[in-house]
Write a structure and sequence with these properties.
Layout: E1 19-21, E2 24-26, E3 32-36, H1 43-55, E4 60-62, H2 80-93, E5 97-100, H3 107-111, E6 116-119, H4 127-136, E7 140-143, H5 150-162, E8 168-172, H6 190-197, E9 202-204, H7 206-210, H8 213-225, E10 230-234, H9 255-268, H10 279-290
Parallel strand pairs: 3-4, 3-10, 4-5, 5-6, 6-7, 7-8, 8-9
Antiparallel strand pairs: 1-2
Helix pairs in contact: 1-2, 1-10, 4-5, 8-9
């Protein structure tokens, strides 16, 4: 059957692909947790958030050095200084790093620091950026635009693949609807739909979907039950003081619930998940993350 995105399309009877980032893998056999601060603020905040992520079982660190914001007056990130902080924290924790590229001119610079390059929702159809990132050759995390159809999302992935980078992970992060009770509407049906249409792994971002801390765990369970290959979660040691998206960031006290949800759903879905063992390690890591 002809398709407009032949490079990322699912082939008949072919298994879905896995994408490796460092020692971590995202694909149909695993349930992967990517976690960290939405924005890098200070070295101390970033390291504490990374320790929190590790304690919850994250195998990939996320963090934003460049932050595309709706308002030009909002915190835009620390830029190159933020990349340096992320590099140091990733080295100290041993976690591979994914961070966002917002400008094609910065693609090489960001790639020098990151193990995986993220294209955010607002740049999903920035075709010059997609092309520049695709030429670099590192794995790419491609978020769905807030008003994008699934075909448009997959065509954006095709732009990247056309440049030679096929290690692409898709991320459903909620779409814009008329509902004002939460930040975005998580399109849970997108997960099995995209897995039917494409070979690419699919993650869900429950933090940006709901925009509220209390929705992160329920949306995580829903995402994994629908077959998502993992989740991308915001954590922060002091969300009330966060410079970006504090209301959706999980606090240290929320992490045991996240770890349990990931472990329970991985068991139900017959997938592997790396989790801190034994339980005492979780307690020790949480204590070190909060002090």
């Amino acid at each position: 059957m002809a398709t407009t995105y032949p490079l990322v399309a699912r082939q008949p009877r072919a298994p879905r692909a896995s994408v490796s980032i460092g020692d971590s893998s995202i694909g149909p056999d695993t349930t992967t947790l990517i976690a960290g601060p939405c924005a890098v603020e200070t070295p101390e905040q970033t390291l504490r958030a990374a320790r929190m992520a590790q304690a919850a079982g994250a195998t990939v660190l996320r963090g934003g050095a460049y932050k595309p914001r709706t308002s030009p007056y909002a915190f835009q990130g620390l830029g190159e200084r933020g990349l340096a902080i992320l590099t140091e924290v990733a080295a100290e924790t041993g976690l591979p790093l994914v961070t966002e590229v917002v400008d094609a001119r910065d693609a090489e610079l960001v790639a020098a620091h990151a193990d995986m390059l993220q294209i955010g929702a607002r740049n999903m159809q920035n075709f010059g950026l997609l092309t520049a990132v695709g030429k670099i050759g590192k794995p790419v995390l491609l978020k769905r635009g807030m008003s994008a159809t699934i075909e448009e999302w997959l065509l954006a992935a095709e732009y990247i693949a056309k440049q030679g980078t096929i290690d692409i992970v898709l991320c459903e992060r909620g779409i814009r609807t008329y509902e004002p009770a939460y930040r975005n509407t998580l399109d849970i049906a997108a997960v099995p739909t995209v897995q039917r249409l494409s070979q690419l792994p699919v993650l869900v971002d429950p933090s940006h979907s709901g925009g509220r801390r209390d929705l992160v765990l329920p949306l995580t369970r829903a995402a994994l039950a629908a077959g998502a290959d993992g989740v991308l979660v915001d954590v922060h040691p002091d969300p009330e003081a966060a410079l970006c998206d504090g209301p959706q960031a999980l606090r240290p006290g929320d992490l045991e619930g996240l770890q349990n949800a990931m472990r329970d759903m991985a068991f139900v879905m017959n997938r592997r998940i790396p989790v801190p063992e034994p339980e005492q390690r979780f307690r020790t890591d949480i204590e070190s993350a909060t002090h």
